[in-house]
Structures are given as structure tokens and as C-alpha cells.
UniProtKB/TrEMBL annotation:
UniProt-annotated stretches for the region Disordered: 411-459
Range of residues in the leader sequence: none
Top-level taxonomic group: Bacteria
One annotated GO molecular function: lyase activity
Name of the featured protein: Polysaccharide lyase 6 family protein
Lineage per the UniProt record: Bacteria, Bacillati, Actinomycetota, Actinomycetes, Kitasatosporales
The keyword GTP-binding is annotated on this UniProt entry: no
CDD domains xref list: PL-6 (cd14251)
Organism: Streptomyces glaucosporus
SMART domains listed in its UniProt record: PbH1
Keywords: Lyase
Coiled coil: none
Amino acid sequence: MTEAPSAQDDMTTTAAGVATATGATAGRTITVDSAKELLKALAGAAPGDRVELAPGSYRWNEPVTLQAAGTKEAPITVASARRGKAVLDGTAGFAFGRAEHLVIQGFQFRQRTPMEVPHTARHIRITRNLFEFDEPAGKNSWLIVRADHTRVDRNAFRHKSAQGVFLQIDGPGDTVARRVRVDRNLFHDHRFTGGNGGEAIRLGYGVKGPAVAEAVIEDNLFLAASGDDEVVSVKCSGNVVRNNTVIGGSRGSIVLRSGDNTTVSGNFLLGTAGIRIYGDDHEVFNNHIQGEGQLIIGPGDAKGEHRPARRALVVHNTVVATAGQAALRVKSGEVPPSSVTVAANILVSDGKAVQVPAAKGFTWRGNVTTKPQGDLPTSGGVQADPRLKADRAGVLRLTRESVKIPAVGRVPDSFPQLRNDINGRPRPSAAHAGAEQFEAEPSVTRVPLTTEDVGPSSK
């Protein structure tokens, strides 16, 4: 075990994968090469210290339980001495006791049992790691978070074949961990082919719909994450799902399956991905869906096991649906969705643009649809070709010709919560239809995320 002065990591790393300081309190660096030495070093660690596990293969049969208390200004870090070179490839990896302000950084997790962050911990950060388990054939999940204020960022989760999820956010009893942040991760190649239970992220559980989690899932790339019809499954309340990219899969949508009051905004969903909503008071805006995916407003059932969408705000989205799919579909069921506002969307389809077999008390305003409109009420918008054009990334965007169309160039209503468009451009009260506000010389343009933007090597 060796010691040296250290600077605590806060996002910035060198080309070699070594952390550098960006404002956090400095401490010691302690290098170890065994579980015993790691636990000894942690027992004596002070806020700001960094314990580094030397490169090598670590095949532990039992989990190594980490207990340490850093501070917000000076967390304690447990890291691979060189990013990706300390490989945990035994039966178990790390577990957590009473730990707080603890950072886990730069490992390869190739173990056979889940990593669990229990509710007794808090302010845990899991960052710049690779998760690729030697998973059993049966149902299993890889990272299970039950601790409040956990952050999961800049990791790669890849190559899962069995039933189970890459990341489960849960909590004790009828609760869900509060204020979890999941950002800049790469989730790719979930290959489970069964009918259910292969999400990339599951936030909560169906029975925990009323639990308020206040989670933020943002700036993640889901690449060929095709283990389930739901790539992100939200089953609790009060969350934000924004600025993610879903691409390259054979199935998988962002789904608000249980719970209320969640915002879905700024997402690129390309290929087979779409958005489905159930429950009360959701806001869905500034999303771009292009391919076989749809924007679906869902019903409930008479037993109350699944609740219909009610009082949702579905505005300023662009949906370009192919393969004969409706761009926007209001599904029928025992209890139809009700009191939903659908406004200022661009809805393009090579079939019916809008399919509404059942809806109750909907407000339709200022939508632009291609022909045939389908079931859009006469007062709900106009039929027009929005004259979209593909950019270099293949995303169909507004053009100068688009905004010459009155229905595209100015929608009849404004929504105060929409200060910006999908790109981050200001959205004036006289806004354009769809997810973006056209600018001839754009100040900023967001494009779908790529593998360079996320994962262990990203900025």
C-alpha cells in the first residue's frame, strides 16, 4: 500500500484516464492491490482521499463492503488506478454499508451478481465504469440503486442477453430512491428476446406509481437496447426524462407506465422508438420521433391496475412515422384517456397521421398533419406538407420553406413552460410548430448523441 498527494476528480480526466482536480478539496492517493488493503485504506480515509486499486483481475467470491464518509466538497473516491484496468471478474464486486459522498470510478465490472446501492447509503456516485457481467442464464439485473442522491454517470452498460435490466432504481417498502441522476451513460446491446423484463432502465415498479422520486434521466445514449418494448420504463412520479437518444434497436420506447407528473422533453427517438404515456399530469414536449415509433396516449383498465392518461400536455413534438404507423395514436381500452391537450405538433405519416378510436375531453389545437389527417378534429389543426429536410445526421428538420406555411410558422397558443426548443433555442410566444424553432443562422443545434458523447471516455 502506497500513499501520495492527490487531487479529487470532478469530471476531468487526462488522456491516460487519470483524474485531475477541478475545484474539489485535495487529499491523499493511496494505492492498494487487494481487498484487504482496500478496506484498511478506507477505514483510515479522510474526506478528499482517493484509494486506487492497482491494475489486475480481482476474483472475489463475496462482496467487498465499502464504508466511508466523505463530504460534498471532498468526497472519498475508490478508483481503478488506470481507468478500465482493475477488473472485478469473480462472483461478486462491491457492496455498500453506511457510506456517503463516495465515488466509484473507472472499473470494469464483469462479476456474476448485482451491484446494489442500499438505502442506508447516500450521495454515492458511480462514474466512468464498464458494466459487462458474466451473467447467469436466469433473470438478473446489474446495478440496483436504492439510495437517495445517487448519481450514475459516464458508464457503459453492454451486451446483456438474459431477462433483467441494466439499471433498476428502487427503494425500501413503497418508496423509490429520491433525486437519483442518470446521465451521459451508454446503454447498448440488450439482447433479451422475451416479451417483458428487458428494459435498459426501470425507474420504480408498477405498485410504486404514487411514490415521488424526482429522478432525472438525461443525456444518455440507448444503442440497440432492444430487450423490451420499454427502453426506459417509468413506474413512479415526479421525474424528468430529457435530452436522451434512442437509436438502432428493434424495439424500445420511453414509457410512462405508472405514476404521475413526469416530464419527457428534448429526446431523439429514431428507428423503432417512440413515447407512450399513462397516468396523470405528464408533460411531453420538444421530442423528435422518426421511424416506426409513435407517440401513444394510453388507456386504463376497469380494475385500476393500469391508469389512463389524464390532463397530459402533449405539445411541440415532431413525429415522422413510417411503415404505415399513425404518428399520434390515442389507444382504446376499458377506461379511455381524458382531458389531454394535444397542440402545436408536427405529425407526419405515410398512413393516417392521427388515430383516435377513443378519447374523452381532449383539446386539439394548432397541429400540422400530412394527408390523410386521420381522426384529427377539424378544429385541431391543418393538413399541410411541413417541408422538412434531412440534416447530415438524417434528422428531418424545419426549413425556410417550412415556416412560410402559416400553420407551421405560427401556432395559435403559447406554453410558458416551453422557454426553449429541442435545440436550446429560445421559443417566442409566436412559436413554430413542432419540436424546433427554425433559425436561418442557428445559434445552437442539438443532434442525436453518439458514442463519443457518453460513456467512460466522454468529457
